[in-house]
Specification:
Rossmann fold, globular, two-stranded antiparallel ribbon, single chain, alpha/beta, 178 residues, 4-stranded parallel β-sheet
Length: 178
């Protein structure tokens, strides 16, 4: 059974899945493999936040892209108080993602971590946020943003490692357009 189907089943059962610990306990109790906990948790949060996220006009959404997707050391992007400013050089996938997101109306930021995300949220006060990052960063941001009532959607990195990471661009673009 796919993770997507398992998540839908857990939601249908009405099980409390508000925290990662609750998700882990539930998976263990149901006899599911917990090695996919991060993926299940992010998928679950995407499902639980979908209605509220999609109710927000795209013009009031922010997209956060992890800086680790940049092709370093070649990347010519410059760091500012609001993250990296992409030069649209085409060396990495960020350019393609930003192009699509900007066409749709998202305000986009390339950020080095969670503390900058929250400075930007405080300044721009988005009504919804979309994130592309590793599971750890996504889980932290989702948790903190949910506490202040900001619904989220996210796509985790497909290749992690904090440098020259990758994401499934097609999945990002499809999710941005939903």
């Amino acid at each position: 059974m796919s993770i997507e189907r398992n998540v839908k089943r857990l939601i249908e059962l009405g099980i409390d899945l508000g925290t990662k610990d609750a998700v882990k306990s539930t998976l263990e109790a149901l006899g599911y493999d917990t090695s996919y906990l991060d993926e299940v948790y992010i998928t679950l949060k995407n499902h639980l936040n979908a209605k509220a996220f999609f109710a927000v006009p795209v013009s009031e959404r922010i997209l956060f892209i992890s800086h680790c997707m940049r092709k370093t050391p070649e990347c010519p992007a410059e760091i500012t108080e609001e993250g990296y400013v992409c030069k649209r050089c085409g060396l990495c996938d960020i350019d393609k993602i930003m192009e699509e997101a900007n066409k749709l109306g998202y305000k986009t930021f390339i950020v080095p971590g969670g503390s900058m995300v929250f400075k930007i949220v405080k300044k721009y006060r988005p009504k919804a946020a979309f994130g592309i990052a590793c599971y750890y960063e996504l889980e932290e941001a989702i948790s903190k943003l949910s506490r202040v009532g900001i619904p989220t959607r996210s796509v985790p990195l497909s290749k992690t490692g904090c440098v020259n990471t990758k994401v499934d661009i097609e999945r990002v673009i499809i999710t941005l357009k939903e």
